[in-house]
Specification:
The chain has 376 residues and is of the alpha+beta class. Helices cover 25% and strands 31% of the residues. The chain has helices spanning 19-24, 54-60, 87-99, 137-147, 152-157, 162-172, 178-190, 197-209, 215-220, 270-276, and strands spanning 2-6, 35-38, 47-48, 68-75, 82-83, 119-123, 127-134, 222-228, 232-235, 241-253, 259-260, 286-287, 290-293, 296-299, 307-311, 318-321, 326-339, 342-346, 351-354, 360-373. The mean pLDDT is 96.
Length: 376
């Protein structure tokens, strides 16, 4: 069965006022439009064609919760720096906060559920900027050298070990580092470098939006990456990241567990963040799609919660197998999806659910269709 899905954009302050509207070919609403959720997550379930919420609709069909959540994400300004826990960390943290009597919707609550939240974002704007993972230390030392004496205390803490890197991040986010943080930001604003021009420009942008925020110094330790359309970032448990600007398709495990590390007025638990942190350094985890068949590409992620393919028909029909309940999201052109008992036409920003009894669908037309399913 094919079921149309819709939802109202979430108006988080960092959302773009134009990107989702432009994709859908409509006038902007005048408010930030940050995310559109196409899933059954109880925090904001999609609506089916008959007006039911998707979680209620699936329950009425005798189906359990989907293991994944698909979104459109439109960043007009930077999101918070954050990381997500592993399954084991999420279960322990969730049980601990429940035992402590912290309400699940409390502002100071860290673990909203007992699941992990690995995620994949794929750029569908011409560029999508993000911070992802901790930069190789040799590169970071060169950047801190450009900043000069103000960064000497931070540089001395980066001895090359993961434990020292984690301790340095904890120090940056602590009240004890306040004077150093302000000095580093001030010196970075005044610094110039051909190699690190983009990173220093980002410091100025972030400091204008979050004056003196220690997350700005955390950002100096992270990979700054610009994705081209179709490229993705896969962010596993513990990896620091922050999306900065652009429109993307985001697919994640069905969870709302976020541990923040700056650039936000929301709750930050430094001890808990460091406890889940993957402090390894290296290049940004950019993921490029692999050809699976004519007109079909896939993103290889090492988890069972979800899989993502993109289908680009060019006038011919393409058969797409579906290993479980799927969500289909159009991002360009006009595509027709034909199932066992009917068809649905999708235009950019429109989505549909294909129920588990649809072993495959045929995709035709001229456009682009993202297909989210459980992983293997």
């Amino acid at each position: 069965m094919l079921v149309s899905l819709s939802n109202t954009p979430r108006d988080y302050a960092w959302g773009s006022q134009t990107l989702i509207a432009d994709l859908e070919g409509r006038a902007p609403s005048g408010a930030p439009e940050a995310e559109v959720w196409f899933g059954d997550h109880p925090g904001n379930p999609a609506l089916t064609g008959d007006g039911s919420t998707l979680d209620a609709w699936l329950a009425a069909q005798g189906q359990g919760q989907l293991p994944y959540l698909l979104k459109l994400l439109a960043a007009g300004s930077p999101l918070s720096i954050q990381a997500h826990p592993s399954k084991e960390q999420a279960r322990e943290g969730f049980d601990r906060e429940d035992a402590a009597g912290i309400p699940r919707d409390a502002a100071e609550r860290t673990y909203r559920d007992a699941n992990h939240k690995p995620e994949l974002v794929v750029a569908i704007s011409p560029e999508f900027r993000a911070l992802a993972g901790l930069r190789p230390l040799a590169d970071t030392r060169r950047l801190l050298a450009v900043i000069g004496d103000a960064a000497a205390g931070l540089t001395s803490r980066l001895d090359g070990s993961d434990a020292a890197t984690a301790d340095a991040l904890a120090w940056v986010l602590s009240p004890a580092a306040g004077d150093d943080v302000r000095a580093i930001i001030g010196a970075a604003r005044d610094a110039s470098s051909t190699e690190f021009a983009a990173e220093l420009d980002l410091v100025r942008l972030l400091d204008d939006q979050y004056p003196g925020d220690p997350g700005i110094v955390v950002a100096l330790l992270m990979n700054l990456v610009t994705l081209s359309r179709g490229e993705g970032l896969f962010v596993p448990a513990g990896v620091l990241h922050a999306y900065l600007e652009g429109l993307g398709v985001e697919l994640m495990a069905a969870s709302d567990n976020v541990l923040r590390g700056g650039l936000t007025p929301k709750h930050i638990d430094v001890t808990e963040l460091v406890s889940v942190l993957d402090a390894g350094t290296g290049p940004a985890p950019v993921l490029r799609p692999a050809a699976l068949a004519d007109g079909v590409e896939g993103y290889d992620v090492p988890i069972a919660d979800f899989a993502l393919r993109v289908v680009r028909p060019t006038g011919s029909e393409i058969d797409v197998t579906l290993p479980g309940t799927a969500i289909l999201l159009a991002t360009a052109g006009r595509v027709t999806v034909t199932g066992a008992a009917g068809e649905i036409v999708l235009v950019p920003g429109a989505a549909a659910l294909a129920t588990a009894d649809e072993a495959s669908v045929r995709v035709s037309g001229e456009g682009e269709l993202f297909v989210a399913t459980p992983g293997s």
